[in-house]
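User: Sequence in, structure out. Go.
Assistant: Echoing your sequence, followed by the structure tokens.
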Amino acid sequence: MRTLEKKVFSYIDEYQMLLPGERVVAGISGGADSVCLLFVLMEWKRQFGLEPFVVHVNHGIRKEAAEDAHFVEELCGRLNIPFYLRVADIPGIAEESKCSEEEAGRNFRYKAFEEVAREVGAAKIAVAHNLNDRGETMLFNLFRGSGLKGLTGIAPVRDEIIRPLLCVSRGEIEHYLAEIHQDYCHDMTNEGDDYTRNRIRHHILNYAEQEIAPGCVQRMGQTADILAETENYLQQQTKDALEHCISKEQDNLLELDCEQVLGLHPAIRKRALLTALNRISPGVRDISYVHVDMIYELFTQRAYRQFCLPHSIRARRIYDKVVLSRGQAGLSLPADPLEGMKIDFQIIPVEELPRDWSVNREKSLIFPQNQYTKWFDYDKIDRPPVVRTRETGDYLTIRNSQGRLCHKKLKDYMIETKIPSVQRDSIPLLAEDSHIIWAIGYRISEYYKVSENTKRVLQVQLVMNADDTEGENEGAN
């Protein structure tokens, strides 16, 4: 048995990835990593028994994609492995879903793997991430401000997904393929710098490996394993701590005791709040520590306040309790001027925006009439933005008659705009402390507007009940 095979087999045993005779779906692109995975699985089959099934996805992006599919199909034919081809228009899916091609492709691939696994009765799905991929993910998450979980990088096992090659580097994989005289496909999109991960791979991780700390990829993998163990321990501690903080629980609603939450160790406190959010809204994305910071303010300030979060989640401070609810839960609580509102935040690097963004900016994106969507320069926002009604000291940034930026009291703006006084306290505001980012239905602050220098965009999408929506006022910015 070759060195790489011994190393991978030991890793499979350590994480109990495979059982003898098990059916496994393998995602094979035709690149070096996935071809290596296939041959390692074939060696496992020879020694312990295994029924592999190969899925190849043609993303419809590269002109060489059909050739890659043909290569994988021929390889499967030679190895006598069932081959499944899935074809998708990933650019079209990305545009329709308002996400990057990278994310759209990943979602489609895993959906295809899961469909074939159900069809053939496979218990596991094997994908070909390696040590370098794990290091790139660790750095990517670190640069984005990830917590401990993000710094663990890619997990060896997640549900039915297994990653047998996560213990070997890209260099070891290429050496193994040369050793067995096996060719593979070359994806030219991996050579460019169009994607953030490519830039990390080419300009940061590769430089660190060659010029700063040779072998750093291997050591980063070891660090990721240590962090993963720590994360697992903290998850259990967090779960136990949260149970002591819950004073009431029902469908889509949690009531938390403020004194109990504030008494938690700082290492556990915000983790418990994030766990609570995920508990009332399991399986949803876009809930992060930004939203946890917003909610934590409710525990430190006694005044009755409330926030709207993504996925119809509402957080309210009521006396010595904070109530987290989703959807219709908790409607018997005190009257809410923001009732019927759903708001979603999404941070998007400029390069991942729809392709016609730079040509036509906001006008190129069309949303249903009962939705408000605005875009802001995310890097100008220092503190987590919240949705609330007006407070004393609120102000907007506007341009004066000389074209210069200046502050204007929100109260003065409402008077000049002739907003009836009875309506002023019910207008929803997106705010950073006292600085109003967006007076919803009226205007946005000049300070936060997207410009040619913008690197990251905060997309804020607000959906109102159809009966409450009359469209934004004419002249709104």
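User: And one key feature?
Assistant: The first strand starts at residue 23 and ends at 27.
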